Every structure is written in structure tokens, then in C-alpha cells.
Amino acid sequence: MSNKNFSRRQFLSLGLGLMSSTALVGLAGCSEGPSTDAAATTTAATGAADSATGVDKDAFNALVASVEPAADDVIAANPWASAIKSAGKFRLGATRTSTIFSQLDEQDGKVYGFDAGIYLGLVRYILGDENAYEYTQVTSDTRESVLQNDTVDAVFASYTITDKRKEVISFAGPYLSTQYAILVLDGNTDINSVNDLAGKKVAVQSGSTGPEVVGEFAPKAEIQEFSKDDECRAALEQGRVDAYVVDNTLQMGSIVKNPGKYRIAGEPFGPEEYLGIGVQLDNADAIDFINDFLKKFEDDGKWDELYKISIVERCGIDTIPEPPAIGA
What we know:
Layout: H1 3-12, H2 38-46, H3 57-65, H4 72-76, H5 79-87, E1 90-94, E2 97-98, E3 102-105, E4 110-112, H6 114-127, E5 133-137, H7 143-148, E6 154-160, E7 169-185, E8 201-205, H8 210-217, E9 222-226, H9 229-237, E10 243-247, H10 248-257, E11 262-264, E12 269-280, H11 284-299, H12 302-315
Parallel strand pairs: 1-5, 1-6, 8-9, 8-10
Antiparallel strand pairs: 2-3, 3-4, 6-12, 7-10, 7-11, 7-12
Helix pairs in contact: 3-6
């Protein structure tokens, strides 16, 4: 295992705020282990931030504004970026309902979150104005089609890189990694790792890889399938299941939206997946330009700062992971 991967996994085992010896939690968690201080700690972590989004808007906007636009010769040397510059707008495919990654704030009409910080920075890097974009809402069913139909220049939507998707589109990045995480009610002290799922009723989403992952890593668990995230959490809250297993980015959003209600039990587990930026198939110019931007974004310390604003400060943790290797 490389030092970079160790660093990330080490981070994923850190808890919210003050950790106890039993409080191991992943990126998704943004929560501590069994503790009566969960609600108070989460409130303290988010109290200084904007109440509507949980994000420090001033810090977020200042970070985006600090991105220095690319020099004219850098733009001119790349046909993909040059075409966007000539059009005067970036055709963006994204979402605005992801609590952690790209959330619309109806008070000011702006978006905040980890994905939003990256795509607004890229728009500013190309066009000199982070607001110079045309927004297209995408879903899991339309992300590929809007690229294939040349409706958008790129898709930012917590987009997991898979071999199947790479048959029809290409990816720049990756810029973040994810795994599976176990969600339990905050007062549950019985489940603190994937090993504790044996004999427990575990909710998973049907149609996802959740059943296979739980079956592999917790073969003695009693799997119960539900169609949607809110159904899984409802079953957990009603005591019909003991735990809920899904991608840790989704768990992270649930924790932030419901401080004191849930906690993450143990470390993330299962196959490590990577989030990338979707572009048209084999568009090497787009891949090269975005990857160069991401590298610069990281080298300038902006990736760390964005992670701090979008995730660390909202969750009360105090460690920032190393980003995954770009182009890997």
C-alpha cells in the first residue's frame, strides 16, 4: 500500500471532534462513535457556518475567487478550452441537491460544496468568471447522454469511474475516492465495525452493489433490500433493521443533514471507488486540460482548503486526506 493510500485510509478512520477509543469513522461519517455528545459536537462543528447550507459562504466564495484565470496562451493551446472561451460560457452538467457536494442555496441562488468548488474554479480558470456557465441538471440516467449529445462540456456529479461507463464516455481526474460505510442510530453501541454485522439485519439499496458488498464482507448478515435511501433510513429509525450500508458519500450527507441522529460504525470498507469528471469519449484535450487544472488546484493548496470548507469544518474532523493520483 502506498503512503498516499495509507494517508487517506488513516483519515477515514478518524472521528468527529474528540474521538474515543471506540469511535472509528470514515469520510462519510463526519460523526463520532457511541457518545452522548454527538448532537452537541455536530452543532458546534456547524454552528459558525451558514445555517442554510452549513458552509462558510465567505470562505467558499473567497476560495473560488482566488483561482487565477489561465493565461491566453494556455487556453489557445487547448482546442477544448479554446472552444469554451470562444463561446463565452461553460456548458455544465451537474446537480444541485447534494448536501456535501453541490447544494443550491435558495437564499442567494448559489451552489456550495466540494464538487461545486471544483467546477466553479474550472469555469473561472477558463473564462475568468465563475458565473459564466450554463447549467443542465443531470441524473444517473442522463449523465452519459448529455455528453454523447454534446449538450454539456463536462459533467460534475459525484460521478464514479467505472469500466462500463468508460465504454461510452471518458473521465478526467479522479479527484476523490469513496467506499462503503455502515450507518446506525446514534445510540447503537453494538455495531462498531463490519465484523459486528454478523446476525444483524442490514438494509441495502436494491439495484446497487450493496447486496454483493455486504454479502462478501459480512456473509452472516441478514440483508434486507429497499428501493431508496430514505426507505433504508426509515427502516433503521423504526428498528426494522440494525444498520444501513451504502456508499459513504451518501452516508456523509445523511449525517450532516441530521446531526445527532446517526453515526458511522467503524471504518469504510469494500472496494475503493473513484470520482471523476465526465467528458465526451476519447476527448483527450478535455482530459488533459481538466487534469492540468486539478493538479494546479492541488499544488496551490486549494483542494485541501476546499475539503476543509466543504467537509472538515461541517463535520468537526481535523484531518485532511491526500487526494487520489490524477490520471490513475
